[in-house]
Amino acid sequence: MTDGNLVGTIDVAELMFYAFVLFFIGLVFYLRREDRREGYPLEDELSGRVETAGGPLHTASTKTFRLPHGKGTVDAPLPRTERREPVDIAAKRTFRAGGAPYAPTGNPLVDGIGPAAWAERSRWPDLDAEGRPRIVPMGTESGITVAKEDSDPRGMIVTGADGAVAGTVSDLWVDRAEHVIRYLEIATKAGPRVLAPMPMSIVKGKKGEVHIDALNADQFAAAPQLATPGEITRYEEERVAAYFGGGYLYATPERQEPIV
Q1: Segment 133-174, tens digit of pLDDT
Q2: Strands 135-137 and 165-175: what pairing?
Q3: What average pLDDT score do residues 198-208 get?
Q4: pLDDT at 194
Q5: Which of these CATH numbers, 1.10.443.10, 4.10.540.10, 3.30.70.1170, 3.40.190.10, describes 5-82?
Q6: E strand or H helix at 14, and its extent?
Q7: Peptide bond before 192: cis, by omega within 30 degrees of 0?
Q8: What SS3 class is residue 209?
């Protein structure tokens, strides 16, 4: 009869415990490396210098991801020789200290400051499962209509935060995959046609108006334009959302002041 020990006083249960501990330590290091594929290495907040270059236990090895619908490949993390240069923004710190807020020195709605910042997304449209552009004008999609019980914003005037008329809704841009309105196409009084995010819009009545309090009426015409009519890329979606979202802070000087 044996005592169950494999070597000396080490039995199967103790061996499994040691194996689990070693596996768990390895798993922690693996997960910490994998979650550093973007945004690393860190940079010093004031000088912009790389704080730590990392190493084999801190930085994931470069992996190539194949994009769907034949859109090529993406490498992450990028090799150190290909990482971005420091980005200059039209803003300055209100005082020199880590965490100090930035004050815009130009037009923050287009300079990408604070809530008006955007990410460098891909320069092609978001695609549905069939590889078609996901967000399109309703005028080109016969299978999607506005329910009779709801208000159809097309033809309604659009007012801004100042109550002035910014333009008229000329079309609706819908999501083919989810059958919801993503953007309002607005023919501005100044001429350009721009897109405004539907979640920032309030439709008042079936024959009323659309109110968008993100911007003043005269700021709508300067919203980012689409490079290709009838098509919006992921990058352009970022720019549109950033422009209107930034308006909640930068549309007027009063919005940048403390609430109390």
Answers
A1: 999 999 888 888 998 888 999 999 999 999 999 999 999 999
A2: antiparallel
A3: 89
A4: 97
A5: 4.10.540.10
A6: helix 12-34
A7: no
A8: strand
